[in-house]
Specification:
By secondary structure, the chain is mostly helical. It is built from three helices and no strands.
């Protein structure tokens, strides 16, 4: 039931109450005249004394005032009941609006939380992929560097052996019989070999 429908029902109720009060007032106002018209033709020759007429008028006014007071009391009760109903309905409508807004806010927060989790998971996957890529690249570079160093060592060893052979051949050294001499000569050239490899790096 919408707020507009409730508002129309309450307005119809109030209009009904006011219409009832108006009918009661009209009935109370015109009733003495109707009774007077009905009773007047009965005895045309009888005239009421002034005191009796004043008493009747006072009684009629008293009854009319009593009816007015009762109608006002009924109207006050009806207005109090209507106010209570309106207040209750407004509280219900306000509570429903607040609950709807809270539910919508919770849904928005849940969606944002899901998006944040997705972004974090996506970032973590990107970082892991980047780390794996860098690890593979570093491993490849280390393999290439190792191969380059091995090639340099081979080149330096070849140069050292050639240089050693040239030097030993100049002295007419017997390579088979002079193992101690060969070892000593290689030891002498070892530092030069290391320095050459270091300079290449």
């Amino acid at each position: 039931m919408t707020f507009f429908t409730i508002f129309l029902i309450i307005n119809a109720f109030i209009v009904g109450c006011l219409l009832t009060l108006a009918i009661q007032h009209a009935y109370a106002h015109f009733r003495p005249h109707i009774e007077e018209k009905k009773t007047a033709p009965v005895d045309h020759s009888t005239h009421l004394p002034i005191a009796v007429r004043e008493q009747l008028l006072a009684n009629a006014q008293k009854k009319y005032q009593t009816m007015l007071d009762q109608s006002a009391l009924d109207l006050q009760k009806d207005l109090g009941s209507t106010t209570h109903v309106l207040t209750t309905q407004l509280y219900k409508i306000g509570g429903k609006i607040v609950n709807d807004e809270l539910d919508q806010y919770k849904n928005v927060l849940r969606d944002m939380h899901v998006q944040a989790d997705d972004a974090i998971n996506g970032g973590r996957k990107d970082i892991e992929a980047y780390q794996a890529e860098m690890k593979t690249k570093l491993s490849d570079e280390m393999v290439a560097e190792k191969a380059r160093l091995i090639a340099q060592i081979d080149t330096k060893l070849s140069d050292a052996v050639v240089s050693f052979l040239i030097e030993t051949l100049q002295h007419d050294v017997d390579l088979g019989a002079q193992s101690a001499y060969l070892t000593k000569t290689l030891e002498q050239h070892k530092e030069e070999f290391k320095k050459g490899v270091s300079d290449e790096n």
